[in-house]
Specification:
Layout (H helix, E strand, L loop, with lengths): L18 H7 L10 H6 L26 H12 L1
Length: 80
């Protein structure tokens, strides 16, 4: 609805309450599902990669306190 494409995004904080959730959430396209391992191994989602993902360390790094995690993710994206 926002007419935003993957190329328009340069960083992402995903709700990764489970280890697999970040991998699923970082899907760029349906064809990327088959190459997810290669995408991660390429370094694209790393802190200095072409598409950093969960630069804060994700929800699990915070202990996933309900309610506070979303606020922490917004803070990470806005202030860092």
């Amino acid at each position: 609805m926002a007419d935003v494409r993957p190329k328009d995004i340069n960083v992402a904080e995903l709700h990764d309450c489970f280890t697999i959730a970040e991998i699923i959430g970082s899907r760029i396209s349906d064809s990327a599902v088959r190459t997810r391992g290669k995408y991660i191994e390429s370094g694209a989602p790393d802190l200095n990669g072409s598409m950093p993902v969960n630069t804060s360390g994700g929800l699990k790094s915070k202990g996933h306190p309900v309610g506070a995690t979303g606020t922490a993710q917004i803070h990470e994206l806005y202030f860092n």
